[in-house]
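About this split. The held-out portion is used to measure sequence recovery: a designer receives only the structure tokens and must propose an amino acid at every position. Recovery is the fraction of positions where the proposal matches the reference. Here is one held-out target exactly as it appears in the evaluation file.
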């Protein structure tokens, strides 16, 4: 019985620590892509509560030094059991 609990505990720990990551394109414009890349990150609890109030394209563009135009916007989501990490990735000049 003790061996069964150890195996079950190991499986439960692996499930809690595992994640799935997906990156999807959100939008594209006719602005030139350029070399600048900016990222905005936030944590999301229960799929509803965003932990970064400044999360968005504006913050990502500011962090990347993009002033002329945003060419692409991608969103990466890493999902855990009750927590997700979202990252907006913008490119432009």
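Reference sequence for scoring:
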């Amino acid at each position: 019985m003790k061996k069964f609990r150890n195996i079950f505990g190991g499986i439960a720990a692996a499930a809690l620590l595992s994640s799935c990551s997906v990156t999807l394109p959100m939008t594209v414009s006719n602005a030139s892509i350029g070399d600048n890349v900016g990222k905005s990150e936030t944590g999301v609890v229960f799929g509803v509560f965003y932990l970064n109030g400044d999360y968005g394209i504006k913050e990502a563009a500011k962090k990347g030094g993009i002033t002329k135009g945003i060419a692409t916007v991608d969103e990466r989501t890493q999902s855990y059991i009750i927590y997700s990490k979202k990252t907006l990735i913008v490119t432009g000049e």
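Annotator remark: The helical segments are 2-17, 57-64.
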